[in-house]
Design brief:
By secondary structure, this protein is α/β, with parallel strands linked by helices. It contains five helices and five strands; from the N terminus they run βαβαβαβαβα.
Length: 153
């Protein structure tokens, strides 16, 4: 039997944007299984607790039979080991994202032999980040065009 191609898609996903959804959708065609891994970072103060983020992401990705959602803390490579993932899936919007992701990919490969697969953002999502959406929300701006429908409630 062939080994499954399992990818971990890690992030804080605060909030989960249309750009994130695009990575999941395109990645679901490349991998047998994707785990959207919602990171619990003690340094960051999220706008939604992890259970709420997981619940809304599960609803958004429910149409993909090969996508799961789970929380994790600690090193991403440890989450990969836990879920049997040999790949880390990441989205890249800008050259600065690329530089950051390349450095992380080198370290993750060195630590655990995990390969990172980068998917470039679609043009319509390249300027949207979770931090930008949080900032706009803070000032009362309607951010619905940047988020999947279920998160606009």
């Amino acid at each position: 039997m062939d080994r499954q191609r399992i990818a971990l898609f890690p992030g804080s996903f605060d909030p989960f944007t249309l750009g994130h959804l695009s990575v999941v959708e395109r990645g679901s065609r490349l991998f047998d299984r994707i785990i959207v891994a919602v990171g619990v970072n003690s340094v960051k103060i999220p706008t939604q607790d992890v259970d709420d983020r997981i619940s809304s992401i599960k609803e958004v990705v429910s149409r993909f039979s090969n996508v799961e959602v789970a929380a994790y803390d600690g090193l991403t490579v440890e989450a990969c080991r836990k879920y049997g993932a040999e790949f880390i899936l990441r989205g890249v919007r800008t050259i600065s994202d690329y530089e950051y992701e390349r450095n992380m990919a080198d370290v993750n490969r060195d630590l655990a032999g995990i390969e990172t697969v980068l998917l470039y953002s679609l043009p319509e999502h390249s300027s949207v980040s979770s931090s930008m959406v949080r900032e706009l929300r803070r000032y009362g701006v309607d951010v619905s065009k940047y988020l999947p429908d279920l998160q606009n409630r």
